[in-house]
Amino acid sequence: MSLMDGKVILVFGVANRHSIAWAIAERLHAEGAEVAYSYAGPKLERRVRKLVEPLGATFVEPCDVTSDDEIERLFKRFGKAYGKLDGMVHSIAFGPADDLNGRFLDLSREGFQLTLDVSAYSLIALTRGAEPWFKNGGSIVAMSSYAAEKVIPRYNVMAVAKAALECEVRYLASELGPKKVRVNAISAGPMRTLASQAIDNFDIMLRWFSDIAPLRIDITQAHVADAALWLLSDMSRAVSGDTVHVDAGYSALGIAIPESLQPPDIKGKL
User: Fold this and answer.
1) Residues 100-127: what's their mean pLDDT?
2) Which secondary-structure segment (H or E) carries 24?
């Protein structure tokens, strides 16, 4: 038997083959899960279907997560198709470019509201829709960022949204725990995705990361997918309300000195 045999997992957030959600979906499928998909809108349909249908996906549905009516319709269709849910992946985030790359003080009210709605409130709304279909417990995994905890240049409004998301994880874990539904987040290190392209100077941060992080490696979608598999499987059955850092140890650091700037006698020893 594979790790996820018999489990039905609903994945939100696949946009292209570089999406974290896609890496997670592939990993789940390889471990025997039945994976259902929801994507952001009509513009993504052809791209998403081209990815998921070779894996035998039969549930591939659009959903505007800012619409309660669309969320309700999605879960009605899902319930009719499967009758149960074992896990859900929330890998959804959006913020206007001007509110990511400008001054924090200049965040627009409209951009703030939209970013928090799409990137944070959607976890609450989707969990509410999913709750009736968790018949025998289950697991929810959301994607976060270290910007929720510390200042990361150019994350601005998204940092606020991720902080809200991590707080929601704790509250949802508390409420759903008696039903044996676990809720956790993964805080991933920087990697190239469609979303990261909206952040100014992201390439500079990416170049420095593996020179600073204790494990001296770049984070990949595969690293995050492995962590998500663990959180969605029964192997993490006693873990809930937590944020798991998949960042090569970067979040453990206080002041970090890039190896290229360290004195010769201590290079490779820190």
Assistant:
1) 96
2) helix 20-30
Over residues 127-182, the pLDDT tens digits come to: 999 999 999 999 999 999 999 999 988 889 999 999 999 999 999 999 999 999 99
0.85 cut: is pTM over it?
A: yes
Q: Which of 155, 179, 180, 269 is catalytic?
A: 155
Residue 179 known to be catalytic: no
Q: Are 173 and 120 in contact (CB under 8 A)?
A: no
Residue 159, classed as helix, strand or coil, is helix
- Helices 122-130 and 156-176: angle between axes, nearest 10 degrees: 30
d(CA 47, CA 177): 36
Taking alpha carbons only, the member of 256, 151, 265, 266 closest to residue 214 is: 256
pLDDT digits (tens, 9 = 90+) for 185-203: 999 998 876 565 556 566 6
Domains (range + CATH), the chain? 8-261 (3.40.50.720)
User: Which one, of 31, 139, 134, 118, lies nearest residue 75 by Cα?
Assistant: 134
The Cα–Cα gap between 194 and 213 comes to 23
Q: How far apart are CA 145 and CA 147, in angstroms?
A: 5
| Among 7, 39, 146, 162, the one annotated catalytic | 162
- The verdict on whether 155 is a catalytic residue reads yes
Side-chain-side CA neighbours of residue 160 (13 Å): 16
DSSP assignments along 194-226, one per residue: TTGGGSTTHHHHHHHHHHHSTT-----HHHHHH
CB atoms within 10 A of CB 58: 12
